[in-house]
Amino acid sequence: MSATVRTTAAASQRRGRGGRERVLAAAARLFAAQGINATGMEQIAEEAPVSKRTLYAHFRTKNDLVIAHLQGLVLSGATLEGVLTREDIPPRDRIRKLFDQPVADEAPARGCPFIDAAAEFPDPQSAVHSYAREQKLRMVRLIADLVTELGCRDPLVLAEQLATLADGAASRAMVLDEPDYGRHARAAVEVLLDQALPPTSAAEPAPVRAR
Q1: Integer Cα distance of 66 and 164 in angstroms
Q2: At what angle do helices 113-120 and 155-176 cross, to 10 degrees?
Q3: 28, 34, 44, 59 — which has fewest CB within 10 A?
Q4: H or E segment at 99?
Q5: Shortest CA distance to 149 belongs to which of 84, 100, 99?
């Protein structure tokens, strides 16, 4: 492809629809690769590609873009707690899947994006930190709903314990670049569930035998 054709194609893409989606996709790639604070708005515009005018028409500030990025992760179900809302999986298995190895690829292991965002915006009153906190509290509520369904009498205490294990395992997986680090927490999770849930909930369902 000649330089003229490439330039024309890029210009056409800049003028085309879907600018907001391209900005979010570019931001997701760059945030994951180099962090939020290390990524500038001009770099995102170039990666998208869109003009800076288009970028700021969709996202007035970088904080707006970061929150939209995090909201998109929630809607996609691609976060650590995304499995908790899957109604096609039994409640106890949803909790177990918090500790599953993610889909294998060549990218470095990543931790929880909400914890990462809160660390990069340490002021508890900042918009990004506040949104990250809301999502971590939502995670506890989702777990509490599941263990309540399983018969736990003190669901919030158990939910905090399980959330702490999940967040800790995800953070260590990122630091050590060991995607399956969650395996170290699974045994503790099973002990907590067995102790907190009534026997009928803690036990695995018996296999159905053909007659």
Answers
A1: 24
A2: 80
A3: 34
A4: none
A5: 84
Average pLDDT over residues 78-102: 90
CA-to-CA distance for 71 and 67, rounded, in angstroms? Answer: 6
Cα–Cα distance list, 178 to 32, 38, 46, 210 (Å): 16, 24, 32, 42
Measured between alpha carbons, how far is 153 from 196 in angstroms, rounded to an integer? 8
pTM score: 0.82
Return d(Cα 66, Cα 31) in angstroms, integer. Answer: 9
- Identity of the amino acid at 101: Q
Residue 6's pLDDT band (cuts 50, 70, 90) = very low
Task: Tell me the pLDDT band of 11, cut-offs 50, 70 and 90.
Answer: very low
Q: Which long-range contacts (CB under 8 A, 24 or more apart) does 168-175 make?
A: 169/99, 170/80, 170/111, 170/112, 170/115, 171/111, 171/112, 171/115, 173/109, 173/111, 174/108, 174/109, 174/110, 174/111, 175/111
CA distance 28 to 21: 11
Residues 6+ apart with CB under 8 A from 206: none
